[in-house]
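Researcher: Quick one. two chains, 746 residues in total.
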Amino acid sequence: MNRRELLALITAATGTAMIGSTALLGGCATTASAPAKFSAENIALLDEIAETILPRTETPGAKDAKVGQFMSVYVTDCYTLDERAIFHKGLLSLEAQCNKTYGRGFMALQPAERTAFISQLDQEARTTVAGGGVHYFTMIKQLTLFGFFTSEVGGTQVLRHMPIPGRYDGALAYKPGDRAWATR
Amino acid sequence: MSTQHFDAIVVGSGISGGWAAKELTEKGLKVLLLERGRNIEHIKDYVNATKETWDYEHRGRPTQEMKEKHPVLQRDFVLNEETQGMWANEQENPYVEKKRFDWYRGYHVGGRSLLWGRQSYRYSKQDFEANLREGVAVDWPIRYEDMAPWYDYVERYAGISGTNEGLEQLPDGQFLPPIELNIVEKDVAARIKKAYGGKRVMINSRTANITQPKPEQGRVNCQYRNKCWLGCPFGAYFSTQSSTLPAAMKTGNLTLRPFSIVSQVLYDKDKKRARGVEVIDAETNQTYEFTANVIFLNASSFNSTWILMNSATDIWPGGLGSSSGELGHNVMDHHFRVGASGVVEGFEDKYYYGRRPAGFYIPRFRNLGDEKRNYLRGFGYQGSASREGWDRNVAELGIGAGLKNALAEPGAWTVGMTAFGEILPHHDNRIYLDRNVKDKWGLPVLAMDVELRDNELAMRKDMLQDAVDMLEAAGLKNVKGSDWGYAPGMGIHEMGTARMGRDPKTSVLNGFNQVWDAPNVFVTDGAAMTSASCVNPSLTYMALTARAADYAVKELKKGNLK
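Model:
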């Protein structure tokens, strides 16, 4: 991580800095009581949400990269207590909203319904963030992108990676469809 | 208490300590190299050197637990999973922040030479003359001409890649072929040159990464992995481990002792010479004495001064070198984290291969010649051009296959650069001993009382505006300038506190880095700096050290240090 890269703070397609890297909320993270732990069901749900954001196509998707598992580890270890509480509450709220709209939980939705539902959440989160607020879906989307593209599956099968390039070419020919490097 | 004698003792094994050990052992002296932290063996102990992002549980990001353990480090990028364990333990090694000071320390063999940014530039003629010309602080006791042969010497050995540009403000050197600019950087460089009639230039950064092998040092040329801070298994960047330590070892004259905290220089007031050092073994807490004819303090700027403050206090309450009233004063760093970025169009059919450990450099252009801004001195920019990755903002894409496919391709070419500005030596920017706070070994700790002053604050306005202007003049789109804020220490270029000078009444060290009050004690790390320039300082520490070591050995032979 070079100083130059300070200029490239992660916005992760969500319009806000990477949550967990700087304090999301002002003040100390002492207000929340011990947050819930992730259950196997939570992780399965996160996998399906992530897969809806980054689905398998001709290349692997979020589930292939075990993004749900990654999110559970990252939220537990790298988020503040307050941020963790928002995330866990968000999962409950997501299920509640899903039940209200479709009369079923997210896992029971058809692919098209999942896309519609998550698209709507994505819009909602963006509106909230644009207004200076915090939305749990921003967290889910950031961690999906971060978890996927920094995974071995994402970094080598969707992006490309050369462990030991051996030389530098500053004018490599590029045509649309050529994959991006996993690391700049 | 056991005592052991050496010809020379070097305190600290970072960039300057490694050089002191190499030079003194190669000149035939039996040298004891003391390091307060653990040993790190070249290659073998670079535990993360070949890891990829996905090999880290949190993909490199710091956890809350890490942040709690490192309340200072967590303020910046230096706290991450990759370099965890390479920074000083903040619980065992506290310090006092009278004002916020970010002190990032490497307490292990190699020190911050393993972690440094490797940018290597010479101080210029005007850097050595500016204090005198402007009536700031005190005059350097040396001039560029004194340093030039030593810059040549250390560049050749360390291996600095770069280009000679014939610039007065950034002297040419003994360079290996440069790390190339990419096609966009070359284009932007040409546009800046044209827009400013050559008065502002964008050149290859000069970096201590070798572009040709150095088989005599067992070093392979850079493999473009850009993982330098993890320790390079190819030895491609200069560090104590890759370069100076093996040379010192090869002489058979070196004894390296890790876990050795030097608590004071032992001073003989009758002879007015140091006779050795007192060492606390960091693991056993046992105290040892080592004696020597000459002592080099290379413990890092503040820690070298800390040792002086703890030494000969029965004669000078403020410690060895305090008779000048300047010990601990004139703290400098480089202030930065202000710059600009923008988008370059027209190169969508180009990309790059390999990850460079370097980029471009824009040397100082302010207050040269007849120009007089509303501040003294100047700044340079470091930056690079690259294509955006998956972390770019593609708000319009929402979710799904379209998002994934778009992020699987590189985005726009962007240029980002940040300025590094000179901080003037100011007497009131200082560190001092706080005897009420003790470290793990019961030793008093440093307190920091440093702040940016009007000159730096005025300069920051130009640092921001000039960055925006230049990128716009080069035709970039969507140019955005930012000041991300700076706190003293963040530059990790702490300097001053035992400055060189011409007069023992106003300086701690003479023109050969000897403590005026103890001529067999040399301080050749950042503590010695009389002014900061705006360029990265490590190369100058190397040159100062090699020069002082050469002088010390000559003086020893003449019997002048007895």
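The CA atoms of residues 6 and 152 of chain A lie 24 Å apart.
Researcher: Thanks, that's what I needed.
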